[in-house]
Every structure is written in structure tokens, then in C-alpha cells.
Design brief:
This protein is mostly beta strands and 196 residues long. It has two helices and ten strands; from the N terminus they run αββββββββββα. The relative contact order is 0.21.
Length: 196
């Protein structure tokens, strides 16, 4: 079998075609809120570098990845899917991976929605020929603090874009609008007044 070229590996990994091989996610507490979010993921950049951070010639086209090589992928995300989605993006995503072998990677994934982040930290993954992949969410910030779940990536044919379904659990009740927060804090702290 001929070695896989960086271009092919880069396209496969950029599309999120990785299967997680080691990432145990704790179960969500009973009664924890769950959410499903759907996005059309539009590729912005795909960059391949060597272990020293130098760009690989032709962005890695024609060369097999070696241990220490990096793959960096960014995208803008539109609510919906590739057939029907919002006209402006409302989220963005980033995947940064380091090759351990030509087919095994260690990755960090960030999915920013508004002023909050979903994170997949230190995910060990392997390249797979399957059409759909899954990246675990093991924490978050803001409204997604302590989130657990999965980012499921389904590539769109003949492109570097993908449909993304995010399934979350372990979320507290979603934040109330600012006015409701002010009223509830006011009641909680008695007669003290403050501005948010």
C-alpha cells in the first residue's frame, strides 16, 4: 500500500474524519439538561506544519505525515445544515492536532458559540475512512461550563465542509435573560441594589 500523502490525510483530518480511540466521558447526572445543536461547518484554513512549526511544502501534499507534524483547521459555522442554513455564521471552530504516527493524532478542539466555548481537550484520535466521525466534548466555558457530549461531523461531498451535530448533556439550566437574572439576584441579596 502506498503511503498516504499529507494532502489526503490533511483533507481527511480537516473534515473531522477521525475516530476517537481513547476518551472516556463521565456520565451526565440524572436529570441534567441536554441540548442538540446543528451547524454547517465551512472550512476557512487548513495548515500542515512540521514538528518545528515550519509550513510543509505544498501544505503537505505528496508526503506522508510523521510523528510531530501538526494539522490546524479552522471553520465558520452556520446554524442549520449544508442544504438549509443561516446566511451568517454564529459560531466558529478550531481543531489542532499533532501526529503521533501517520494515522494516530492527539487533538484539541474548540467550538465557540457566542461568548462561550465547547472544548475537546487532549483527544487521542485515529484517521478513519468512515464518512462520519465523533469528537468528545469534555468541558466548556460560559453557558457550556461542565458540558459533556459529542461533536458528530458528517462531511459534505466534494468539499472541505461538513454538517456538524453537537449533542450535549450535563448542562445546568440555560441562563435566564439579563432582566430575570437581575430580579433573581435582587431577591437573593435582599435590599442591596447593584447594576449588572
Amino acid at each position: 500500500m502506498a503511503p498516504r500523502s499529507w494532502g489526503r490525510v490533511g483533507a481527511v483530518a480537516a473534515l473531522g474524519l477521525i475516530t476517537v480511540v481513547a476518551s472516556a466521558l463521565p456520565a451526565a447526572p440524572a436529570g441534567a439538561a441536554g441540548r442538540t445543536l446543528r451547524y454547517y461547518n465551512v472550512n476557512q484554513t487548513t495548515i500542515a506544519t512540521d514538528a518545528a512549526g515550519r509550513p510543509l511544502p505544498s501544505n503537505g501534499q505528496g508526503a506522508a505525515p510523521v510523528a510531530g507534524d501538526h494539522l490546524d483547521y479552522t471553520a465558520l459555522d452556520y446554524a442549520g445544515d449544508h442544504r438549509r442554513h443561516a446566511s451568517t455564521y454564529t459560531a466558529s471552530s478550531h481543531l489542532a492536532c499533532t501526529f503521533q504516527t501517520p494515522t494516530m493524532l492527539t487533538c484539541n478542539a474548540q467550538f465557540a458559540i457566542g461568548s462561550s466555548l465547547l472544548l475537546g481537550n487532549d483527544v487521542t484520535a485515529t484517521l478513519s475512512p468512515d464518512a462520519t466521525s465523533s469528537i468528545p466534548v469534555n468541558t466548556g466555558t460560559g453557558r457550556y461550563k461542565n458540558a459533556k457530549g459529542t461533536i458528530v461531523v458528517t462531511p459534505v461531498r466534494n468539499s472541505l465542509n461538513a454538517d456538524v451535530t453537537i449533542r450535549l448533556s450535563g448542562l445546568a439550566a440555560w441562563p435566564a435573560p439579563i432582566g430575570q437574572m437581575a430580579r433573581s439576584r435582587s431577591a437573593q441579596y435582599g435590599s442591596r441594589s447593584f447594576r449588572l
